[in-house]
Amino acid sequence: MSFDPIARTVGFKPGERNVFLHILTACNLSCRHCYINPEQHGNITLPQETVHRWLRLFRQPDKETNLILLGGEPTMHPDLATIIRDAKAMDYRVTVDSNGYLFHNLLDAVTPKELDYLSFSLDGPTPEVNDPIRGQGVFAICTSNLQKAIASGFTCSLIYTVSGLNIEALHKMPALLEQWGVKRFFIQVIGLRGKPAVETAGENIDWQVDPHKWLEIVPRVATDAASRGIHVIYPKVYLDSGEVFECAGNVAENYFVFPNGRVYQCPLCEDHAIHSYMIEDDQLVHLQGLNEQRFFSLSIPEGCVMNKLLQPENISYNQDGTPTHRISCCLLKQEMRPNN
Ligand code: SF4
Ligand code: SF4
């Protein structure tokens, strides 16, 4: 079957709430682009009772809330199945983002009805592309467990983090996703935080993708995937002229929660102690002083202020000093839906 894709910018939906809850920071892998920063996020595994109290803290019965359970590797948490059931009982829409190893027999421990989405992270269509980024043997295990999950009836997504190391292979993904039966395809862009910002700084790795390459490749691949019946979501990154810049920190409700109690509203800020909130004694405390919120209202020609401060490499300028592209909020998404 073929589908006529429909493209649109998703924007920040009024009333949408997303809680990205890192239940631990430990992981069995050590991907080269890992954004987890133990110095900033600690190395705690949240006890299940604490997760329960924090889920109650973020629950708003009158609003639908998406809960994304993350790590580290969330399936390493011995109580993940209980946490998923607990969250469903509080009416969260629950997603687990896994590296594909599915520890503690997750597929047997919960049913497809108890988990809205199971997401797998894969950064290449072959072991030759994926494994140098995510680790030796990871492609085989991740894709085998992905296919097992789909065969068991779970609704599965795949997350592909695009960087200079794998953008040329992105076009091979849609056919594979169709073959495997993946329903949603998230294309993400590498951010210079965590390891890419620190540990590999001296290695001269070309992580960033230039605007022309991104604009030439990503929409084309998204169209291909959507024409195969897959819902594709990818960051806008570069605003078209005339498009309005908006910072999600001002207009959306996103909470990026770490096991040490830090709560950010902007993922670009996660490497710095400029979080907006702190969970103290199971209460969400709004922090005063210099924090990320001070930056959300600043207006600059380059678009996102944090991008300009933290990863200015991805901004280029015309001869008259104006930026060639404005950078959108990293949380602004485009989507390409199959028209069926
Ligand atoms: S799977 Fe995720 S948390 Fe683990 S090393 Fe890779 S990027 Fe980091
Ligand atoms: S990425 Fe930029 S625009 Fe988006 S929330 Fe952060 S500071 Fe605001």
Task: Write a short abstract of this structure.
This protein has helices spanning 38-41, 48-58, 80-89, 106-109, 127-134, 138-151, 173-180, 211-227, 248-251, 293-296, 305-310, and strands spanning 4-9, 17-22, 65-70, 93-98, 117-121, 156-162, 184-189, 231-235, 238-239, 253-257, 262-264, 277-280, 283-286, 326-327, 333-339.
| Beta-strand content | 15-25%
CATH architecture: Alpha-Beta Barrel
Biggest sheet features: 13 strands, mixed
* Tally of individual helices: 11
Shape: globular
Residue share in helix: 25-40%
Mean pLDDT over the residues: 91
Rounded to the nearest angstrom, the radius of gyration is 19 Å
Structural class: alpha/beta
Q: Going by CATH, what is the homologous superfamily?
A: Aldolase class I
Cofactors and ligands present?
Answer: iron/sulfur cluster
Topology:
Layout (H helix, E strand, L loop, with lengths): L3 E6 L7 E6 L15 H4 L6 H11 L6 E6 L9 H10 L3 E6 L7 H4 L7 E5 L5 H8 L3 H14 L4 E7 L10 H8 L3 E6 L21 H17 L3 E5 L2 E2 L8 H4 L1 E5 L4 E3 L12 E4 L2 E4 L6 H4 L8 H6 L15 E2 L5 E7 L1
Parallel strand pairs: 2-3, 2-10, 3-4, 4-5, 5-6, 6-7, 7-8
Antiparallel strand pairs: 1-15, 8-15, 9-14, 10-11, 11-12, 12-13
The structure holds iron/sulfur cluster (2 copies).
